[in-house]
Amino acid sequence: MDKTRILLVCLAVWGFAGGCDGLLCNCTTSQCEKNGYRCETTGACMASTSLIDGQEQHVRICIDKEKLVPPGQPFFCLSAEGLLNNHCCYTDYCNSLDLKVHSVTVQPNSSTMMGGWGPVELAAVVAGPLFALFLLVLLGLFLFQHHQRAYGHRQRLEVEDPSTEHLYLAKDKTLQDLIYDLSTSGSGSGLPLFVQRTVARTIVLQEIIGKGRFGEVWRGKWRGGDVAVKIFSSREERSWFREAEIYQTIMLRHENILGFIAADNKDNGTWTQLWLVSDYHEHGSLFDYLNRYSVTIEIMIKLALSAASGLAHLHMEILGTQGKPGIAHRDLKSKNILVKKNLTCAIADLGLAVRHESVTDTIDIAPNQRVGTKRYMAPEVLDESINMCHFDSFKCADIYALGLVYWEIARRCNAGGIHEEYQLPYYDLVPSDPSIEEMRKVVCDQRLRPNVPNWWQSYEALRVMGKIMRECWYANGAARLTALRIKKTLSQLSMDEDVKM
């Protein structure tokens, strides 16, 4: 009976998930509650009654067209005498009827009642429905396990773009070929799911290069090329899914946003590893780089301009059928910005990002309990005055954090033989792991900001950087610069300083 219960649950979940325009049916699952207990499908309506612990259980759901196999006598519509009574129909709300489970009865003269059927025919009549039921149970168990691991709208992650069907992993394809395919596949949203899984499952992990609250980051090898593999713990499934989902946003790919390659969930029988594969950058994060090296004025401008370019692309909305929604990062900091080989930046870690759908004017906020990094939180986030219904509020919070990152970069600028040791923003005002209350007191109540040294005025590049920082740190978010304005100002500065990007 437990298997039957699991089967019915799975049938209900599948029936709901597969809804589409077409036939209207009654639906008794909890997921249908918001739709007035109805669903839509191009397949069939189904009413089902099962006998569980002596009690009749009634279920009404939609069955998708592709699930109606084999034609003429679909598995989903079969009944099992004494256990299950299913009825499929094909008109609106035709599954309103209450079915009864027919009890099994044995007639004393069964050979007469069956019209003289022999043992082979009787065996076929009995074994046929039982075999069909067995297949349904196996199918139900498989779906139950699959949906148990899923949450939210995982279907969106697993929809493959038909325009990328021409892409395949030939044996001689290199990592460079793969990245080229990613940039020319048309959608700008990444490789098809089957290619992602093929790549992920042929990567050889080499060494751990970082750890965080989500899990670990490894350097891996794929066909001779280095890749970065971010491995999430199973309890961080929401973060993994959200980051993979954001990275596969249409038209997100940009030279100053970390290049996404693949996402996969690898079950080794004991636990599930959640992989996110991306480009590998040997310099590591901007935080790591600034700790190791001071920078010239030229490198400071390259780092600052490329970070602004990545954030401007992230924030920008591109209209059209193949358009891109505006995206705000919500956890921008030097540890979430990577330094590429050419010493430009790539923005990473989009697990907390929010998307703005301008057509419906809705903000897609991840169902995630994580918050941003307290040290980089904007005043309106610290005092909880931010307008969560207005997308520009999130972009303004990103700009505040970008100003702090610029302060970290400019401090390490070696101008005239002078540069300072690396420090985190507010290092002299709060402890190493400050609380929100401690940050609020400094940033909101005392209105303090990181110190901008007077000697920066002696160098045009540092003077411009200092001016940009101050205009990123305004208490009023609406008064702050936009990422595009910062990008234009730094582009002009790079031309004046003859910086080669």
TrEMBL record:
This protein's UniProt keywords: ATP-binding, Kinase, Magnesium, Manganese, Membrane, Metal-binding, Nucleotide-binding, Receptor, Serine/threonine-protein kinase, Signal, Transferase, Transmembrane, Transmembrane helix
Gene Ontology MF terms in the entry: ATP binding; metal ion binding; transmembrane receptor protein serine/threonine kinase activity
Record protein name field: receptor protein serine/threonine kinase
Domain Protein kinase: 203-493
Record-linked PROSITE patterns: GS (PS51256), PROKAR_LIPOPROTEIN (PS51257), PROTEIN_KINASE_ATP (PS00107), PROTEIN_KINASE_DOM (PS50011), PROTEIN_KINASE_ST (PS00108)
Residue stretches making up the GS domain: 173-202
Lineage: Eukaryota, Metazoa, Chordata, Craniata, Vertebrata
Record-listed ATP binding positions: K230
Chief location bin: membrane
Gene source species: Ictalurus punctatus (Channel catfish)
